Amino acid sequence: MNKGELLYEGKAKRLYTSDKKEELIAEFKDDLTAFNAQKKSQEVGKGGLNCLISTHLFGLLEKAGIKTHLIEKIDETHQRVKRVEIIPIEVIVRNIATGSLSRRLGIQDGLVLPFTLVEFCYKSDELDDPIICDQHGLIMKLATQNEMDTLKALAREINEVLRPFFAQRRLNLVDFKVEFGRGENGEILLADEISPDSCRFWDMDSGEKLDKDRFRQDLGGVKVAYEEVLKRIEGAIL
Ligand code: 5GP
Description:
Blueprint: E1 6-9, E2 13-17, E3 23-28, E4 31-34, E5 39-42, H1 46-63, E6 70-75, E7 78-82, E8 85-86, E9 89-96, H2 99-105, E10 112-122, E11 131-132, H3 134-139, H4 145-167, E12 171-182, E13 188-191, E14 199-203, H5 213-216, H6 222-234
Antiparallel strand pairs: 1-2, 2-3, 3-7, 4-5, 6-7, 8-12, 9-10, 9-12, 10-11, 12-13, 12-14
Bound molecules: guanosine-5'-monophosphate (5GP).
């Protein structure tokens, strides 16, 4: 599979055309960014870790019946993926309050939510990914009501698969962000990635943060934390 022209470069990935019109090649970068790229760094090997972690998790979700854009992992930092039209909505799923939820609403950091919260943000660097409701989505023609209902239902299903999977590995899945795209015939597919860049994982015993908050909050040990997440994903169920 040959990498063609660079179609899109995001903060953590590049997307290339491939030999097949309906397939793209995704490359995971070592770049680390936070706060809408106001804070930037590099962590050698991070792209490879996220490529492997995301491949594992998408495989797990496929097995559970959730359709994704992933076809296969090609090498350390590349995946073959189906070409989709990305829906510009970041779907945020929260089990425990922290981050922008606690900042925005004053909800106590660490509070286990009485039910899983699903939020939408408009994917826009210029506007700093603002939180939106369905009506904003309709007015801005980001998606149809049917599609937004599907995004919410899929996000909850993904949480129902991943939360117990990580709990068995003594990790609390605190929150995560997912993105979806429209594939052939408008079918909604899980796209982008699921990795410690886009999730928060707290060790159930020590409370240690094993995700990008280590970079956001200058805690150090970013790569060691990502390696620990991979080790637990690959390890036997505890
Ligand atoms: P918060 O809204 O608290 O900053 O983030 C909630 C969850 O969504 C966290 O797991 C965070 O990593 C993820 N998230 C939110 N926005 C983005 C984004 O623009 N990119 C990535 N990779 N993850 C995000």
